[in-house]
Design a protein that fits this description.
binds adenosine monophosphate; binds tryptophan; Tyrosyl-Transfer RNA Synthetase; 2 domains; mainly alpha; Rossmann fold
């Protein structure tokens, strides 16, 4: 069956290995099946829910687009665009926001994490962020949404909004309830400095993540200096459970190599840590450095990137506009 795929990444700088393994690599895999209809969005309206420096926003939009392209997304096969150029997303978010319930939003753990202790000072945009995300997805009748595990709750909210809209306006199956596509294993890539914390764009320590723009030396040094414990490499699954940093590094290795954890454990059983780290650095240099190199090359031609976004936005707008008009009609406008 053909799938309609939609996903988005925020242009907030520092795209990292977690974004790649948790999301972008999957985008590329899905694009390979010609039956799939793929739409990938640089979600710049989401980015401004926290303060962005106007001097860097456009640069970050181009960099995220370049990362999409450098990782293998092809504008001839997928629609690639940025959200702020398609005004239907914001309009859809208003219409759907009148269907979503406060109680549903109050349960969103990402808001609680991002708003921190002082919720009163968080932007209203940050609070209603999941409704804009629902609008992104529902305007394209997306059936499948590849995301990292941290987005699962937002997908559930999207499904609730679709179902309530269909029921309130008596239009079964009008808004399509999408399925999340979440990596089964190693769905959360953790910080290189703390195996219990997610690898994140906003971590003040650059050593905590492999950026998609890192050069060879940076990749090798970050892996060399990645936190580990002093125990031997494990013999089996059970020996690894209480070692979060090692689980993460083994997870990264397995995920890049498309192999299961057991194979990684077997491959390195009895070997020493430095040998494992050297191997990990080698495969990261092999897979990530070409992406980093290509991003830098692409960024030299801003016009080329801007054109891809412009063309993609025109295509996206056609689809999204029609759906917003249909939604308005159902509401009674
Ligand atoms: P964001 O940068 O927050 O827009 O995230 C873009 C995509 O990367 C989303 O699908 C996230 O779920 C995913 N993602 C972000 N951080 C990680 C991580 N540490 N591990 C796995 N996936 C991640
Ligand atoms: N909220 C997602 C994140 O932070 C980004 C996003 C916005 C998204 N709209 C989307 C992902 C629609 C999937 C589908 O990662």
């Amino acid at each position: 069956m053909s799938k309609k795929i939609f996903s988005g990444v925020q242009p907030t700088g520092n795209l990292h290995l977690g974004n790649y393994l948790g999301a972008i690599k999957k985008f590329v895999d899905l694009q390979k099946d010609i039956k799939n209809n793929c739409i990938y969005c640089v979600v710049d309206l989401h980015a401004i829910t926290v303060k962005q420096d106007p001097k860097f926003l456009k640069k970050n939009i181009r960099e995220t687009t370049a990362a999409f392209l450098a990782s293998g997304l092809d504008p001839k096969k997928s629609i690639i665009f940025n959200q702020s150029m398609v005004s239907s997303h914001a309009e859809g978010a208003w219409l759907l926001g009148c269907v979503a319930r406060m109680g549903w939003l109050n349960r969103m753990t990402q808001f609680k994490e991002k708003a921190g202790k002082d919720k009163e000072k968080a932007s209203v945009g940050l609070y209603i962020y999941p409704i804009l995300m629902a609008s992104d997805i529902l305007l394209y009748d997306a059936t499948h949404v590849p995301v990292g595990e941290d987005q699962k709750q937002h997908l559930e909210l999207t499904r609730d909004i679709a179902q309530k809209f269909n029921s309130d306006f008596n239009c079964p199956n009008f808004l399509i309830t999408p399925e999340p596509l979440i990596q089964e294993n190693f769905s959360r890539i953790m910080s290189l400095k703390d195996g219990t914390k997610k690898m994140s764009k906003s971590d003040p320590s650059d050593q905590s993540r492999i950026n998609l723009t890192d050069d060879k030396d940076q990749i090798v040094n970050k892996i060399k200096r990645a936190k580990t414990d002093s125990a031997q490499l494990p013999q089996n699954d059970n020996d690894i459970i209480k070692r979060p940093e090692l689980v993460n590094l083994y997870g990264i290795f397995s995920s890049i190599q498309n192999q299961n954890l057991n194979k990684t454990i077997n491959d390195f059983r009895g070997k020493n840590f430095s040998e494992f780290k050297n191997n990990l650095a080698d495969i990261l240099v092999e897979k990530i450095y070409p992406i980093s190199n290509e991003i830098k090359k692409l960024l030299k031609d801003e016009k080329y990137i801007d054109n891809i976004l412009k063309t993609g936005s025109i295509e996206a707008e056609k689809i999204a506009r029609k759906k917003v008009n249909d939604i308005k009609q159902k509401i009674g406008f």
